[in-house]
Write a structure and sequence with these properties.
Blueprint (H helix, E strand, L loop, with lengths): L15 H19 L6 E9 L10 E10 L9 H6 L2 E2 L4 H7 L2 E7 L7 H10 L3 E3 L2 H10 L4 E10 L6 H31 L1
Parallel strand pairs: 1-6, 2-4, 4-5
Antiparallel strand pairs: 2-3, 2-6
Helix pairs in contact: 1-5
Length: 195
């Protein structure tokens, strides 16, 4: 299931709203076709990383051990925790070495850039991967008690002096190729374990 294209602008639907909706539609379709929900949901896509965490463009990460949100600031008792999310990631660690993937906490927000407040929250969460969908997917998965994992390829380094959008555009094709290779490898490994 993909998030699709926005009919008003013609661009890909990125961000948490589209990801949450596509996840729910995918779960419903699986129930309709297979008669049961999926065993695992994967959020697959591109992301930013940090030089401070020794990330490089083209690195592919498997989410571990959780998903967090860095730009949902709700300064009300109890809601602050809801805003941060802190949702568990499916344990895919056994596949990381075989697939030449790194492991890291994935942080989700609806902005390509990183504000100073976002940066502080990300640093305190220990996140190594910054993207725009996975925590929303994990939240919908948690509502249905379905584990969620993520495979994310680094297209840009958030703490690099070059603008994020320029890095993303320059590196998208090579990161997508690495993402495709690792995702297919992971799916093969998961399929072999289920038989």
């Amino acid at each position: 299931m993909v998030n699709g294209t926005d009919p008003l602008t013609g661009v890909d639907c990125i961000g948490t709203t589209a990801a949450a909706l596509a996840t729910q539609v995918g779960i419903d379709a699986c129930r309709s076709i297979a008669g049961r929900p999926p065993d695992l949901i994967l959020s697959v896509g591109t992301a930013g990383g940090w030089q401070r965490a020794d990330a490089s463009v083209g690195d592919v990460y498997l989410a571990w051990d959780r998903f967090v949100c860095h730009d949902r600031r709700i300064d009300l008792p109890g809601f602050d925790r809801f805003g941060r999310a802190e949702l568990p990631a499916a344990d895919l660690r056994i596949h990381a070495e075989a697939l030449d993937c790194r492991l890291g906490i994935v942080t989700t927000g609806d902005s390509l850039d990183e504000s100073p407040e976002d940066a502080a929250r990300i640093l305190s969460s220990g996140a190594e991967v910054k993207e725009m969908e996975a925590a929303a997917v994990a939240w919908v998965g948690s509502l249905h008690e379905i584990p969620v994992g993520a495979v994310k390829a680094i297209t840009d380094l958030v703490d690099h002096p070059a603008p994020t959008a320029e890095q993303f555009s320059a590196n998208l094709a090579s990161a997508a190729a690495a993402l495709q290779e690792r995702t297919i490898g992971l799916l093969k490994r998961l399929g072999a374990r289920s038989t």
